[in-house]
Amino acid sequence: MVLAAGLGTRLQPYTLQTPKPLVPLLGVPCIEYSLQQLPRAGVETVVVNVHSHSLQMIDYLRKSALLNGVEIRVSDESQKLLGSAGGFRKALPLIESVPGESESFFALNADVVSAVDLQQLAVRHRELQKKHGVQMTLCLADGKMLESQQGAYSEIVINEESGLVVGIGEKKKKVPFYTGTAVFETECFRHLTDGVPSEFVPEVLMPMIRQGKVGFFKVDQLWLDVGSPELWWKSHFELHQEFSHGKTPSFWSQLIQEGSKKVYLSEAEGVVDYDHFSTGPMTGTGKYIRFRGVRTDV
Fold first, then answer.
1. Are residues 279 and 137 both part of a single domain?
2. Given 40, 208, 247, 263, which residue has the most CB atoms within 10 angstroms?
3. C-alpha distances out from residue 134 to 102, 107, 173, 202, Å
4. What are the two backbone dihedrals, phi and then psi, of residue 218, each rounded to the nearest 5 degrees?
5. Cβ-contact 116, 181 below 8 angstroms
6. Which residues, in sequence order, are CB contacts of 215 under 8 Å at separation 6+?
7. What is the mean pLDDT of each run of 10 residues along the chain (298 residues)?
8. pTM of the predicted protein model
9. Which alpha helices (DSSP H) does 106-184 contain, by range?
10. 191 shares its domain with 242
């Protein structure tokens, strides 16, 4: 499942006319990075929840399904946003009706670009499930490795020996944090009331931590958050650097190569400009990002 129903409030004013998952990173809609990963992990059916600009999202998902050769099922929250856990609960019938094994599923965020190996994540989940009976395995990034591109995130407290998450700490830098990618068992969300907004941390994650049912999988691959104009701006240069050094997944390479032609990128000037080729450069303005007539200084 790809979570794409957020409001994109922190990325306004860009998200007033464009859904956050379709905001581009090097010319590629952010959600496409996740949608490209799933078929490579053997996923044939993808569930995506939508809310803001839902018609734009659904139209894009139809095109993406053809591009990636997968079935995309839409969990429509356009009338009522159900929160970080309620969206999973609403989507359960769509997930569980997938032919074959459907008790566990991947979860990715549409506004995060992550190069995690989903197949390795699945192996880790099965190992911890067999050993401890975990109901979820969270991908954790080391904040020390990502200091240049991330703010403060809630610390995920872990037991290295057992492989379990044992608590959640305060928001700070240089600590392990949840990347938004995970494997969940459908049982995690069954206790929630369908159609009622609910939140992941207090209603799902914390109770399962107390039961010893949450495992972790450490990752050191590329991870980018595009949640705010500044982070979005930084992510362009981070991803471009990884791409230039051949460190991005091969199945992203053509996407990035083609998408990059749509944006003027200058690290020396501090400029990310999607309007540069149609309206001309903006001189003497300092560091900024511009997309569809909207510009934000960073």
1. no
2. 263
3. 16, 16, 27, 18
4. -75, 140
5. yes
6. 124, 125, 128, 129, 132, 134, 136, 137, 138, 163, 164, 165
7. 92 93 96 93 94 94 85 94 96 87 88 92 97 97 62 89 95 88 96 95 97 95 89 94 92 92 93 91 82 92
8. 0.92
9. 118-132
10. no
